[in-house]
Design goal:
Helix content: 55-70%
Number of helices: 9
Shape: globular
Number of strands: 2
C-alpha cells in the first residue's frame, strides 16, 4: 500500500523555513503545471515553419519528457493525489502531464486514472479527454468528441463512435454540448439526424 511515508521519502526532508513535505510537493506540481502550459500558450504567436516556432516546439518536447518522468515517479510512489490532498491545481497536473505524454505512458496510467475517478480523486471530464486521446492515437473512433485534428489546413473532429449519442456521453462526465465545444475550433457540428425506420408488412415487391 502506498503510504504517507512513501510520499515523505519522495519529496525529501522538510525545508528549513517550515514547509511540510506535502506543501513542497504541491509547489513542485504547480510549477510543472505552469511549465506544461507556457510553451503551448506561446507557440501560437509564431507562424508554422518559422525558426521561432520550431524552437518553442523543441523546448516543449524537452519539458514534456522531464515533466512526464517526474509525474510518473510521483504516481508510482504516492498514487493519484486528489485535490483534497494536494490542491486542485497540483492534482490536475497529474492528468495534464499524462495527457501530453507519449502513447505508451498514457496507456500505462489510463487504468490508474480510471480508478482515481471511481475513488473521487480525479475528474471524470479529464479522464474523458485522456480516453479520447488514447483512442485517437490508436486510430480508433473517439468516445466524447474532445480530439480535433488538422486536415487540409482546417480543423475537424476526429471520428466519433455512435456520434448521435455523443452529447449524452459528454453530459455523463460533466462536459457541455459538442456543438459548443466544436465551435471553439471553428467547426460547425450538429448531432446527426436520426433516420426514421419503416416497418414493412408482407412481401416486398421486386421492381
Amino acid at each position: 500500500m502506498k503510504t504517507l511515508c512513501t510520499l515523505l521519502c519522495l519529496v525529501g526532508s522538510v525545508a528549513a523555513q517550515g514547509q511540510t513535505a506535502m506543501e513542497r510537493l504541491r509547489a513542485e506540481l504547480e510549477r510543472i503545471h505552469d511549465l506544461d502550459q507556457r510553451d503551448r500558450e506561446n507557440v501560437g504567436a509564431f507562424g508554422i515553419g518559422t525558426p521561432e516556432r520550431d524552437s518553442v516546439n523543441r523546448h516543449m518536447l524537452r519539458m514534456d519528457s522531464l515533466n512526464t518522468s517526474r509525474v510518473a515517479s510521483i504516481i508510482d510512489s504516492a498514487g493519484w493525489l486528489s485535490a483534497e490532498a494536494i490542491g486542485t491545481k497540483a492534482s490536475s497536473t497529474l492528468w495534464l502531464v499524462i495527457q501530453h505524454a507519449p502513447l505508451p505512458v498514457q496507456e500505462r496510467y489510463l487504468p490508474e486514472m480510471r480508478l482515481a475517478v471511481e475513488e473521487g480523486k480525479a475528474r471524470a471530464m479529464d479522464l474523458a479527454y485522456l480516453e479520447d486521446r488514447v483512442e485517437m492515437r490508436n486510430g480508433r473512433p473517439q468516445i466524447y468528441g474532445s480530439q480535433v485534428e488538422m486536415k487540409d489546413g482546417r480543423s475537424r473532429l476526429w471520428p466519433i463512435m455512435d456520434e448521435d449519442m455523443v452529447n449524452e456521453r459528454r453530459k455523463g462526465v460533466g462536459l457541455g454540448p459538442l456543438e459548443d465545444y466544436a465551435a471553439q475550433f471553428g467547426i460547425d457540428w450538429s448531432p446527426p439526424k436520426k433516420t426514421d425506420r419503416v416497418l414493412l408488412l408482407g412481401p416486398v415487391k421486386k421492381l
